[in-house]
Amino acid sequence: MSFTVTRTLNITKYYPQIGLYVESGTEDVSLTYSVNSIANVDVTNSQATVIYEIEDGSGNKVESLAFTFTYSDISSILTEAESAIESSIS
Fold first, then answer.
1. Strand partners, 64
2. pLDDT digit string (tens) for 12-68?
């Protein structure tokens, strides 16, 4: 399960010799969010934690994160997780 969004991100150049960061415009970046697994389900409170990954447009893994949300149907946790993540980044 995955979805892709295009975000406009700030570009920052770094000059390590002098510890200087310089803003240098923006760039549109496609990021793909993929829910990979269910880490925890709390049936008492209808909450679940899933693990998802973010990849850039070249398929490079950017980050792996946990996300906790309230679900309505235990049989559709992965689908609901994807929708909840997409809502949270909009």
1. 53
2. 999 999 999 999 999 999 999 999 999 999 999 999 999 999 999 888 998 999 999
| In contact, 49 and 55? CB cutoff 8 Å | no
The whole domain housing 43 covers 2-89
Token pair recorded at residue 34: 């993929």
Q: Record the pTM.
A: 0.79
Beta strands, E only, the chain? 2-15, 20-42, 47-56, 61-70
Residue 73 tokens, joined: 């149907």
| Nearest alpha-carbon partner for 52 in 90, 78, 87, 76 | 78
Domain count, the chain: 1
